[in-house]
Each structure stands twice: as structure tokens, then as C-alpha cells.
Amino acid sequence: MAVNFDELSAQTDALRKDYTFLESFGVDAAKVHERSKVLELSFTENGATVQTFVKVYSYRTSPFQRLWRRGTARIEARNLLFFKSVGIPTPRVVAWGQRRNAIGTIVDDYIITEAIPETQTLDEFITSACPDRSQPLYRSRRDSIIDQLSHTTRAIHAHNFYHQDLKWRNILARINGDQTELFWIDCPKGDFTRSAAHQSRRALKDCATLDKLGRLHCTKEERLRFVAGYLDQPVDAPEVATFAQAIADYRRKRFDAEDLRQEQEAIEKRQAKANAAQSK
After folding, report:
1. Range of the domain at 229
2. Each residue of 33-42: pLDDT tens digit?
3. Is residue 89 domain-shared with residue 126, that is, in the same domain?
4. Which terminal Cβ of the chain has fewer Cβ within 10 Å, N or C?
């Protein structure tokens, strides 16, 4: 079913609140100077205490960055509502809001989402709840995770939506009875596109982003299972091997090289700090 953009936009705008709502949480956005800040806070709704994550985005250090843009909070709220519409479990959006200055530039905005209890980020969950395939229970959980990821990634791409930050830390997992549940959370960069060139590149990027930690935590067979599920093809189909290689090539070029650069920078900083200490 095609996305009804008018309906999705209306649902998003219906959740907009002014800044008095944020202030009722005891948060003064004007005092947030980081690019983004996340707070775990609660509020009372219909007589019950609701645990939430309050995220504030600040654009004061680079005001021209947001001069003509729609604002991160609204985009993220819309994206979470889109996930829900295609059957991907995601946190409830409690509210979002934005504030502009006299010339229309967004200076800060916020989004509040309901916390999902008893969850871990996907990398933490894999390590603690199913570290390998040595036991049938572990194997079942891992296969469930892979199948859910392949199906949900295929689902968003089928609607010409691309996450663009599909990291394991943006996916929560928990055990509910005998089921392993996954929830997609932060998605401020995701968007729709009709450009075939953009679709191909962004689809590859989403899959390669998942593979960044997938290569460390998953077997080759598990990673091929993801690709087969994503393409809806048998695991031994030629298309699976071809796309798996494309994912690996993209990951090595974009992410592995960046990891090595950051690691080298960290080593150089530690060395510089040690040299400075010795010179005193």
C-alpha cells in the first residue's frame, strides 16, 4: 500500500506542542548548547506515570544550517509514525515542537518519545541474550533478529524510504515470552526519494550500515540470510552473492576506513597527551 503523505503529515502535525509542554518536564531548551541532548524524564498521563526520552536539538552554534529546513524533530516524529504505519514496532511519539527566531530560523526543537521497558540496544542484546549459535535457543533468537531486520528494511525501501543511519544502536531488542522483539528508534536523517540513483545508493548504505556490526557479531551464513531475506530470494541465488559483495565493498570503503581513521586519531591523541605529561 502506498504511503498517504497527506495523512502522515496530518498525524505528525497533530502531535505538535508549544514550548510550555517541554517546560512542564523541567527542561529549558535555551540552556542546551550541545547539538543534541537526551534526557530520561517522566510525566503523568491519565493518572499513570509515563517514562520518556526527551531529545532537544539546538542550532545556535550554526544558525544558517536550519534556515530553510523543516527541523529535525518534525522529521523524526514523521519517520517514527511512518515506521508504525508499515508494521515496524517503534516508540510512541508523545509530542514534538520547534522554536524559530524573528527571521524564521529554527533555533531549537524537541521530540518526546515513550520509553520501551526492558530493552537493550541490538549490540548489547546480541552479546547478552544470544552471543552465538551454540544453543538452539540462541540460534532461534539470532535467526528471528536477522529475519525481522531483512523484512523491515525491505519494507521501508519498498516505500522509497531510506533510513540513512540504520545503526545497531538505533534498534532496541527484548525478549517477550518466547519471542524476540525489535524496535526502531532514532531516525532523524531518514527520508523518501523518487530518484532511482538515490534509491540504489541509499538502499546499499542502509544494508552496509547494518553490516558494520554485523560482520563482527554474525557469521557469514547469517549475513547471507539477511541479504536473501532482504531480496526475497533463496540464499544460494546469484543475486544474493552479488548484493552481499556490494554491501561488503561499500562497508569497507565507507565505514571500515572511517573506523581506522578514528582509531588512529585516538592513538595520536593519547600519544600527544603522554608526551605532554612527560615534558612537564
Report:
1. 120-262
2. 778 899 999 9
3. no
4. C
Residue 272 lies in a domain: no
Cα distances from 211 to residues 120, 138, 205, 273, in angstroms, run: 19, 20, 10, 34
Phi, psi values for residue 84, rounded to 5°: -60, -40
Q: Is the pLDDT of residue 65 over 70?
A: no
- CA–CA separation, 273 vs 262, rounded Å? 16
Same domain, 126 and 234: yes
pLDDT over 80 (residue 263): no
Provide the pairing of β-strand 191-192 with 106-114. Answer: unpaired
Tell me how far apart the alpha carbons of residues 259 and 263 are, in angstroms, rounded to a whole number: 6
- Over residues 205-258, the pLDDT tens digits come to 999 999 999 999 999 999 999 999 999 999 999 999 999 999 999 999 988 877
Backbone angles phi, psi at 204, to 5 degrees: -65, -40
Tally of helices (H runs) and strands (E runs) in the chain: 9, 9
